[in-house]
Design brief:
264 residues; alpha/beta; Rossmann fold; 8 strands; globular
Length: 264
C-alpha cells in the first residue's frame, strides 16, 4: 500500500506501470474507493503509468470532519499528482471524480493532456436533493440510502443476474466513513461548474450509460458538449458504475480516446 502525506490528509493511492509510461489518473465516485477501476485496468493495454487514489473521506484516505469543498478535492488531486511527479496525464473522473476532473482542468491545466468525464456533470442534482440525503445519512447512516443508491448505480438486468456484484459494491458503499460521505455530498451540493467547464479548451471524452439513474446520459452529454471539440460515448445496459458493470466496453472507449489524443 502507498500513502502520500499531504499535510492535512494522508492519501491512499496506487501506481501501476512503468515510470516512463503515458500517464493516466482515475478518480472514484462518491461512496466508492479506487478498486472500482480494477476491471477496466484488466482490459487496458500494457505500458501505461496508472495512478488511482481514494478520495478525501473515502477508502483508506483520511476522513477529516466536514464540511468539505470542491476546491479541497481538486487540490487533493493536484497535490497528489505533484507528489508522485505525474503530469501530461489523461484524468478519468467518475461522478464526483468527474467534477474534480473539471475543476482540475480549470485550475491546473499544466498537469493534464485531456479529461474523461464519466457519468458526471458540471452540476449534479439540486441543493435540496443533496441536503435531503445529508439529513438521511445523519440520522440513519449510509445504510439508509443504500438500496436507492444501488438502483441508480446498476442496470435492472445486472441487479437481477449478478447479485454478488451488487452485494460487493453495497459492502464497499456502506463501509465508507460516514463523515467523508457527508463531506463529499456537501461539496457536490454547493458546486456549479457550468460556466468554468464551458471555458475549457482541452480534449474531452464524455462517457455515459443508458440506465444511469444518478447522472442520466443527456446530462452527461450536455456537460461534455459544452467543451469545444469533445466527443461522447454511450454504454448500453449499464448504470452509474458502468466501469464496474461493463469494464471491457468502458476500456475500449477509453483506449480509443487515448489513441486519439496521442497517449498510446
Amino acid at each position: 500500500m502507498q500513502f502520500a502525506d499531504l499535510g492535512d490528509i494522508l492519501v491512499h493511492y496506487r501506481i501501476d506501470g512503468p515510470d516512463d509510461g503515458p500517464a493516466l489518473v482515475f478518480a472514484n465516485a462518491l461512496g466508492t474507493d479506487f478498486r472500482i477501476w480494477d476491471g477496466v485496468l484488466a482490459h487496458m493495454p500494457p505500458g501505461l503509468r496508472v495512478l488511482r487514489y481514494d478520495m478525501r473521506g473515502h477508502g483508506l484516505t483520511t476522513a477529516p470532519e466536514p464540511p468539505y469543498y470542491m476546491g479541497d478535492l481538486v487540490n487533493d488531486a493536484a497535490r497528489l499528482m505533484d507528489h508522485v511527479g505525474m503530469k501530461d496525464a489523461v484524468f478519468v473522473g467518475l461522478s464526483i471524480g468527474g467534477v474534480v476532473a473539471q475543476g482540475l482542468a480549470a485550475e491546473r491545466l499544466d498537469l493534464l493532456r485531456a479529461v474523461v468525464l464519466s457519468n458526471t456533470a458540471a452540476k449534479i442534482g439540486t441543493h435540496d436533493q443533496w441536503h435531503d440525503r445529508i439529513h438521511t445519512v445523519e440520522h440513519g447512516g449510509i445504510e439508509a440510502l443504500a438500496e436507492g443508491t444501488l438502483e441508480r448505480w446498476f442496470a435492472k438486468d445486472t441487479r437481477a443476474e449478478r447479485p454478488e456484484l451488487v452485494a460487493g459494491i453495497r459492502a464497499m458503499l456502506t463501509r465508507q466513513p460516514a463523515g467523508g460521505y457527508l463531506g463529499c455530498m456537501e461539496a457536490i451540493a454547493e458546486t456549479d461548474l457550468v460556466e468554468s467547464t464551458a471555458r475549457l479548451r482541452l480534449p474531452a471524452l464524455g462517457i455515459a450509460a443508458s440506465e444511469d439513474g444518478s447522472t442520466p446520459a443527456d446530462l452527461v452529454r450536455e456537460t461534455v458538449e459544452s467543451i469545444p471539440g469533445s466527443s461522447f460515448h454511450l454504454i448500453r445496459r449499464a448504470g452509474h458504475l458502468a466501469c464496474v458493470e461493463k469494464p471491457a466496453d468502458y476500456a475500449a472507449a477509453l483506449e480509443g480516446f487515448l489513441a486519439a489524443v496521442g497517449q498510446i
